[in-house]
UniProtKB/TrEMBL annotation:
Residues 37-240 form the ATP-grasp domain. PROSITE patterns: ATP_GRASP. The keyword Oxidoreductase does not apply. This is ATP-grasp domain-containing protein.
Length: 281
């Protein structure tokens, strides 16, 4: 919570310094927001991913069953691993469908990625060239459980983060930056990918499992090996870069009510989670 507050305050201060309206933050990735659905649709964003990096996923409407397990069932709008469940067999898929029978939220089934190691790539675009990045960090995600296919996330106590950015050369970071740009010209993003090694990640041999465009948390700030002073510097530099990108947003860019639409969806999902929890007791 402290980190999030620091990020917000730093961004607001940077916007004030640059004479930028802080609420324009919600316009940063607006071109990718599906206004008819009121969300950053995982299906829409999935279509941006080049075929060699894409993990197959589909709407879980009961007309198609997985041929291999495990699979992951996730809400179309979700982020930070909220609402994701894993199904190891057909019976578990059917149970998940029954639990959300009364829900009007659309869920997706995603096949498991093949890579052995999970990485999170956080980016902020360069305000002078949106195809490049002013901020890029790479975090390796570890899990202390014996689970081969864990659902990692900031709310999972067995998930640990390790900053590997300092280990990467300038050339390697440039390669990863190019990979991220090939997916989309996002002004701020966090990409979750799986690869068998750091070398494979750099070489482009990976699969994308998640793209967060709403309020992506730079997971590098949760790495225990980093010093507090390094995190503070990262926050200030990253948020100043983000404010610079925000300044480039054209005044005539179509306005979309992203904040309130997303807030409403999150509230609906929280209510549904509570209802499911009460039914299971």
């Amino acid at each position: 919570m402290i980190i999030r507050i620091l990020l917000i305050l730093s961004y607001v201060v940077s916007c004030i310094r640059l004479c930028v309206k802080p609420w324009y933050y919600f316009r940063l990735n607006a071109p990718y927001f599906n206004e008819s659905k009121g969300l950053f649709s995982k299906l829409d964003i999935d279509r941006l991913i080049p075929n060699q990096w894409r993990v197959e996923q589909w709407v879980d409407d009961g007309t198609r069953e997985p041929t291999e397990f495990p699979v992951f069932v996730k809400p179309e709008w979700g982020q930070n691993s909220r609402g994701i469940s894993r199904a190891d067999n057909l019976m578990q898929i059917q149970q998940l469908r029954l639990q959300r029978k009364a829900s009007n939220m659309r869920y997706l089934v995603q096949e498991a990625a093949r890579g052995a190691i999970e990485f999170e790539i956080f980016t902020i675009a360069n305000h002078q060239d949106l195809a490049k990045h002013a901020v890029l960090s790479v975090t390796q995600v570890n899990n202390t459980s014996s689970d081969k296919f864990p659902i990692n996330g900031i709310y999972n106590k067995t998930t640990q983060y390790h900053d590997i950015t300092p280990k990467l050369s300038r050339e390697q970071l440039e390669k990863i930056s190019q990979h991220a740009s090939a997916i989309g010209k996002f002004k701020i993003s966090r990409l979750g990918v799986r690869a068998n090694s750091i070398a494979a990640l750099v070489a482009g041999d990976f699969e994308v499992i998640e793209i967060n465009l709403f309020v992506p948390m730079p997971l590098v700030l949760l790495c225990q090996q980093r010093r507090t002073i390094d995190n503070i510097r990262f926050v200030f530099n990253a948020m100043y870069a983000l404010a610079n990108v925000t300044k480039q947003i054209h005044k005539n860019q179509p306005h979309k009510a992203i904040f309130f639409r997303k807030l409403g969806l999150m509230r609906q999902h929280t209510i549904k989670e509570n209802e499911v929890g009460n039914e299971s007791h």
